[in-house]
């Protein structure tokens, strides 16, 4: 039992490996390219037949034969390919349909069409109205054959019925939607040329034109019977007949049909480009996506899928143009760029889209997608604007904090920093967040300015008091220059005594004398060329060195003539004559 199981598993593995490594060696046979799903309602690709198409590098054209089941479609294709029933497409002998899905003859016919070497494939389709299928499945087969083929032969073994007229209307609608472009531009997509092939054995004495005219004429249908039972020939016996055994008129008409097909067929064109094998397969995948998308295949669904790639390209173009913006930008600039990019994308779509009537939905979809992308840019612009303005605001706030704690308070330096912050913010902060941050900036700058002015006078007053005392010491004991000492004492007395006797500390700040002191201080402390707050310490060190040098060596070498008047250090009685 274990041995049998092992053999079974090994056999399954070999079968799987063989199926994976399967490769077509003989292309002189029919292959399925599209097959029904298990429910027989939708279609799917069959990779076996696609290999025969994918190897073609020249432009492709396809001839498809459609029609009711058991109507001789496979036999007709064999006649067009000059093949017997035993080597060509399989011909059914039973009541149910022989062909499932769509099959292709693996060896194309090479034709020279308008100087273009073209590979012509022949396609056999599953017949309409066979047992165990839904009408929507037949509609999908018909729509697929109509879109993918260059010549579509509608094979009718009997009278033209209402269902045939409906399918013809669908083919006409496809032609109206896809053939040509609006405003007379190049062909975007060329549907198949439709040939109605009506077998004369079933015309009941009428000409083909009479039959078609009668079918297209509107007549009442009292009993609602859409199908008329007609006798069938034993068509399978035709497979055994040679051309010499067939009626000469039939052979003549068959050859005329071959010439007609060869005369009207053209390579498949999509967006002005001929399709090779791989491109044809990709095109086929698009069609199947459209047909399987809805419950009932429609021209609109086909248009949507064909426009899907163009829509994505136009959306990518729009995104690229918008991405070229360096966010943040002003709201008006963003809106203007959006409108310009949208108009350009819509123009490209208008030049390339499929369809005339049903393309409106694709246009609306493109506009919706553009609006979604635009909303993302709006949010991105708001974020970048907030980020930039917040950084500028924080930078100015830090700058104001630094100005509040200057070593040497300077109103001029504060005003310069204040203006720089305000101007840089006004220029660099852009976007939707600017208005909000402008209000915050104005409030913060106003508060900083009020605080600085309030502290400025107090700090300057204290600085001047300390400076006057320092200069008293320097003038008295270091350089011994009594004018400096006297000036320092006058300043100290004015600040500490005179102001307290006559003015309050607050009223001092409005006095012209104080304004003169402030102006002198600002001139000494800050200028556009020398910021004393930054260089005070280095300059103090250099000045101290110079003073020490002069104090220790300068007076010995040069005497006292350098700075006059100086304190006389000699003792008062040293040069007086003694009196006894």
How confident is the prediction overall: mean pLDDT?
Answer: 76
State the total count of DSSP E strands. Answer: 10
Structural class: alpha/beta
Strand content: 5-15%
How is the biggest beta sheet arranged?
8 strands, mixed
Overall geometry comes to: rod-shaped
Q: How widely separated are the two ends?
A: 154 Å
Order of helices and strands: HEEHEHEEEHEHEHHEEHHHHHHHHHH
Which spans of ≥5 residues are poorly predicted at pLDDT below 50? 1-22, 180-187, 227-236
**Number of helices in the DSSP assignment:** 17
What Rg, in angstroms, do the CA atoms define?
Answer: 50 Å
Q: How helical, in percent, are the residues?
A: 55-70%
Structural notes for this entry:
With 580 residues, the chain is an alpha/beta fold. 57% of the residues lie in helices and 9% in strands. Strands 1, 2, 3, 4, 5, 6, 7 and 8 form an eight-stranded mixed beta sheet that branches. The protein has a two-stranded antiparallel sheet with strand order 9-10. Helix 5 (162-178) links the parallel strand 7 (151-156) and strand 8. Helix 8 crosses helix 9 (299-323).
Keywords:
single chain; 580 residues; alpha/beta; eight-stranded mixed sheet; two-stranded antiparallel sheet; 10 strands; 57% helix; 9% strand; disordered N terminus; P-loop_NTPase; GTPase activity; membrane
């Amino acid at each position: 039992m274990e041995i049998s199981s092992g053999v079974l598993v090994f056999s399954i593995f070999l079968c799987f490996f063989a199926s994976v490594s399967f490769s077509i060696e003989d292309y002189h046979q029919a292959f399925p390219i599209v097959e029904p799903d298990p429910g027989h309602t939708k279609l799917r690709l069959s990779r076996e037949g696609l290999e025969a198409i994918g190897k073609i590098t020249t432009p492709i054209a396809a001839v498809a034969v459609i029609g009711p089941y058991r109507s001789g479609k496979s036999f007709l294709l064999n006649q067009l390919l000059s093949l017997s029933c035993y080597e060509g497409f399989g011909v059914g002998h039973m009541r149910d349909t022989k062909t499932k899905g769509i099959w292709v003859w693996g060896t194309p016919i090479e034709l020279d069409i308008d100087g273009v070497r073209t590979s012509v494939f022949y396609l056999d389709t599953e017949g309409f109205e066979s047992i165990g299928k839904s009408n929507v499945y037949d509609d999908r087969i018909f729509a697929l054959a109509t879109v993918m083929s260059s010549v579509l032969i509608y094979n009718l073994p009997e009278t033209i019925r209402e269902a045939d007229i409906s399918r013809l209307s669908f083919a006409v609608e496809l032609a109206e939607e896809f053939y040509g472009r609006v405003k007379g531009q190049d062909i975007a997509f060329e549907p198949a040329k439709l040939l109605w092939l009506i077998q004369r054995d079933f015309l009941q004495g009428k000409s083909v034109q009479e039959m078609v005219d009668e079918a297209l004429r509107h007549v009442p249908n009292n009993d609602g019977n859409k199908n008329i039972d007609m006798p069938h020939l034993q068509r399978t016996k035709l497979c055994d007949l040679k051309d010499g055994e067939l009626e000469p008129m039939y052979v003549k008409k068959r050859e005329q049909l071959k010439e007609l097909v060869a005369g009207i067929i053209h390579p498949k064109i999509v967006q002005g480009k001929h399709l090779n094998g791989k491109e044809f397969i990709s095109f086929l995948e698009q069609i199947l996506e459209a047909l399987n998308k809805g419950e009932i295949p429609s021209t609109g669904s086909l248009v949507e899928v064909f426009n899907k790639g163009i829509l994505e390209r136009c959306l990518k173009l729009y995104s690229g143009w918008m991405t070229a913006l360096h966010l943040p930008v002003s709201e008006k600039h963003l809106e203007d760029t959006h409108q310009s990019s949208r108009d350009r994308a819509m123009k490209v779509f208008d030049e390339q889209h499929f369809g005339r009537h049903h393309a409106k939905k694709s246009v609306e979809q493109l506009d919706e997608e553009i609006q979604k992308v635009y909303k993302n840019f709006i949010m991105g612009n708001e974020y970048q604007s907030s980020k930039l303005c917040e950084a500028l605001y924080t930078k100015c706030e830090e700058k104001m904090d630094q100005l509040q704690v200057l070593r040497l308070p300077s109103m001029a330096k504060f005003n310069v920093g204040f203006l720089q912050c305000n101007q840089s913010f006004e220029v660099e902060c852009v976007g939707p967040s600017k208005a909000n941050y402008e209000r915050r900036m104005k409030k913060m700058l106003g508060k900083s300015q009020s605080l600085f002015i309030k502290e400025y006078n107090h700090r300057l007053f204290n600085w001047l008091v300390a400076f006057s005392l320092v200069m008293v010491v320097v003038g008295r004991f270091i350089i011994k220059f009594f004018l400096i000492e006297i000036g320092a004492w006058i300043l100290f007395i004015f600040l500490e005594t005179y102001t307290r006797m006559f003015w309050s500390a607050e009223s001092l700040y409005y006095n012209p004398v104080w304004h003169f002191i402030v102006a002198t201080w600002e001139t000494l402390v800050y200028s556009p060329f020398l910021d004393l707050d930054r260089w005070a310490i280095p300059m103090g060190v250099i000045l101290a060195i110079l003073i020490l040098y002069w104090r220790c060596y300068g007076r010995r070498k040069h005497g006292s003539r350098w700075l006059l008047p100086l304190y006389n250090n000699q003792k008062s009685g040293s040069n007086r004559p003694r009196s006894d």
